[in-house]
Amino acid sequence: MTEAAYLPGVAYDEMFAPGGAVRSHYDPLHARMSTLGGDELADRQQTLERSFLLQGITFTVYGGESTTERIIPTDLFPRIIPANEWAQIEAGLTQRLLALNLFLDDIYGDQQILMDGVVPRELVLGAPSYRREMQHLYVPHKSYANVCGSDLIRCQDGQFAVLEDNLRVPSGVSYMLANRDAAKRTFPGTYRAAGVRPVERYPDLLLATLKSMSPEWRPNPQVVVLTPGVYNSAYYEHAYLARLMGVPLVEGRDLVVHDNMVYMRTTTGIRRVDVIYRRVDDDFIDPLTFRRDSSLGAAGLFNAYRAGNVVICNAPGTGVADDKAVYAYVPEIIKYYLGEDAILPNIETFLCREPTQLGYVLANLDKLVVKAVGASGGYGMLVGPHATQKEREDFAIAIKADPENYIAQPTIQLSTAPCLVDGRIEPRHVDLRPFILSGEKTIVTPGALTRVALKRGSLVVNSSQGGGSKDTWVLADDHNAQGASPGNGATRP
Amino acid sequence: MMLARVADSLYWLGRYIERAEHLSRLSSVMLNATLDQTDSGVQAVWIALSAVGEPEMSSAIGSFEAAEALVLDRSDHNSVVSSLSRARENARQVRDQITTETWERLNLLYLKVTDENAKRDFADGSTSFLHDVIADLHLFKGAADTTMSHGESWRFMMLGMYLERAQLVSRLLEVCFAETPGRQINDHIALVSLLRMACALEPYLRVYTAEIEPRHILEFLVFDEDFPRSIRFATSQIEANLSVLARRAGGDGAGAGPERIAGRLKARLQFADINELENQGAGALLTTVVNECARIHEAIYETFVAYPLEMRLPA
Lengths: 493, 315
What we know:
The complex is a heterodimer of chains A (about 500) and B (about 325).
Chain A: H1 27-35, H2 38-55, E1 58-61, E2 68-71, E3 79-81, H3 83-107, H4 112-115, H5 121-125, E4 147-149, E5 151-154, E6 160-164, H6 173-186, H7 188-194, H8 202-212, E7 223-226, H9 235-245, E8 249-250, E9 255-258, E10 261-266, E11 269-272, E12 275-278, H10 301-306, E13 311-313, H11 330-338, E14 350-351, H12 355-363, E15 368-372, E16 381-383, H13 389-401, E17 406-410, E18 416-421, E19 424-429, E20 435-438, E21 441-444, E22 450-453, E23 467-470, E24 472-474, E25 490-491
Parallel strand pairs in A: 3-24, 7-8, 7-12, 12-13
Antiparallel strand pairs in A: 1-2, 4-20, 5-6, 9-10, 10-11, 14-17, 15-16, 15-17, 18-19, 20-21, 21-25, 22-23
Chain B: H1 4-33, H2 39-51, H3 57-61, H4 63-72, H5 80-93, H6 100-114, H7 118-124, H8 126-147, H9 152-177, H10 188-197, H11 201-208, H12 214-223, H13 231-249, H14 258-271, H15 274-280, H16 282-305
Helix pairs in contact in B: 1-2, 1-4, 1-5, 1-8, 1-9, 1-10, 2-9, 2-10, 5-6, 6-8, 7-8, 9-12, 9-13, 9-16, 13-14, 14-16, 15-16
């Protein structure tokens, strides 16, 4: 690889400091990359893709005769995060999830935070993701969001910030594990030399988290993973987690609710279910309580949950805490419950519902990223600087028609990392999705899914929009020994 | 303990795998037989196509095209590619139940037969294409056997596989030896082709030497105790797997449990012999096997998968 070919832009580059020096935590990888020729890189990329295809880590592209399987593009080079930076991320995420769970407990309890006027009442109670049915329901350990996947980005100044919290049914953890598996095979020597913290314990920690949500009087709880089925785009992940946890993968039609107890149909009769790790959205888990046209859930499930006979993870209604408008208030939420400043900052957010902020947004559409509050996956989004005049005008009309539905943020130049694109090593924008488990304990997995915007200059990393991913190495120790990284399992106070 | 839906998928996985292998072999033998422009070749084609219920197919479109359709026609639900697609679809639904080693074998094969170049590969060398498909299916079975626990999951898969096998072999023999079609196969080369279609040529030779006779073929493929593709062997496997599964289910012993039907069928094959078969006509027994297998299939469904809930709910 020649450095001359690699031209980082104005964004923070993960590998190169301004001026072209290699950041010290990238040294071993950079050295390895320099010794590999183009053919060898292409070979390894091919081997990697083949292994994903073989494992079935694919999505299906339907087209009559030519139904084909595609893998989610995966990049060869890991992204590396030094121990001292990870320590801040870990502390920040733990703090944030703790506060958001307390927020949910409050919102679905006495609503003190609304009475104190910290978050506007109508913003919370009017959110489509707010579930009145959850009001005054006991949730063990006050852990509403047991699995959280937050989206972090690194800004131009090198600081990490939270772009989005995902507290509903976050996905991607199987890619984190599959990418790790692949990276170990691709760069075994570099991996060993770098001292990377393992992520392989995620499945058993997830199982422990889920079990910790079951009441004490069910000492050996039956855990299941609830999937919408084989046609869901994340089905691979559902099956993967069920397999690695050793628990049944169920669909709605496998469940029977009788006398407020949940059972699954087995070959030897029905069997009680205690904890459901559901990968089905709130709306679809119970046609009696939520959407009546859903066939993905089980009729009566929510009543069984209310009766305390089954635990649903994540709890229904967690979406109100990752609402894109509520997001703007998370720093205040942290302050309110924990009396601390947020360790990981938010991105500055303009709420179009506020008339003054709306004016600013409309006047600066060419500089801002506008997002629909209810949408996700990179849909319903305008990246102002990259949009055409026409697109901006259309969006302005939509915003004016329904200002409450939109927020805007400055266009952040996400950091870039080296990626193999068409046989060349080029900088591409990346984000970072770590996974946090919260049951009896809060555990930040020392690793993450790094999502990559594969199109040159693109800032959109979502896989539905042509994004890819790469492995993320969290180092156990920095070479200049800035202290050992904190261990797992920060216990909740 | 396993989910009823999962048991059903594993059962079908076994069936589709067996079907794909059988069809691949029929196609392969058929294509080989047509290389010689003889009447034997014509007979072999007729046997293969009659066994899949399409005796007229070769005269309509030619035997290469017929084989290609049997293997690669996605619109035909009984083709190899359709069977493998369904096998994989079922495997995907129970991905948490089968080992990675087993899954990868099937997935690899699926990717091969659904590849956009599959048609070209088949045309370039249909014999080696089919040889590879069959070898891959053997690898799948081997991987399942050596890496999966031989518990419930595996037994449901075996159940599907042997039921399908018993039915397919019966059907193949029916085509050749049942009285009704009035077309007894006597030609030496056609009979060798028949043995090849049942993957039985070499084991047969070891027992009967190169004297290829309909009577011996029938005896071997129906009654042989040790040959894994004989009907007797298959039914005894069906019975063995079912009795373990039924015992684990702790059934109430009432009604026509599938293990009872299987037990009767097994006993019948165990205690009959070739003289009896010849006296009564092969067709009757073969038809019985096919029908009883269908009954076992239904009983499995009623006992393990779609049982009425009322009986099983706590009071």
